[in-house]
Amino acid sequence: FNPEDFGVPPDEFRGFQGELVGQIIEAAGYEVLLQVSKIKPADTSQAKNAESIQGKRIRIAGFYNDHSDAFAELHSGDSIRVSAVHRNAAQDALDVTNVLEKVERD
User: Which member of 39, 46, 58, 102 has the greatest number of CB atoms within 10 A?
Assistant: First the structure.
């Protein structure tokens, strides 16, 4: 079992707030498993090292409210820009916030 394959974040990434860009590995159950290619931490981010998620996978949940229509259009292989916050450092998944859009692949 490799925790990174399932989106378990490194300890130094926990507490992150900001935007992530990456490719969707899996989209189901109102959450995505994202392979991260770009990181833009917010000034309020509590992550000790936000860049520690670069090239790794992270699970982002909470697409059922404001983003349910956009989520329905997402598929594995799509590249997205998404804002997220890691509210509870004891949990592995981040919560989506206000930004969700498809982008061209890097």
Answer: 58
Contacts of 72 (CB under 8 A, 6+ apart): none
DSSP string, 2-43: -GGGGTPPPGGGTT-EEEEEEEEEEEETTEEEEEEEEEEE-T
Q: Which residues contact 2 (CB under 8 A, 6 or more apart)?
A: none
Q: Dig out the tokens for 86 from the structure.
A: 């890691």
| Closest listed residue to residue 37, CA positions, set 17, 16, 58 | 58
Q: State pLDDT tens for residues 77-95.
A: 999 999 999 999 889 999 9
Does the structure show a pLDDT above 70 at 4? Answer: yes
Instruction: Give CA 40 to chain center in angstroms.
Output: 12
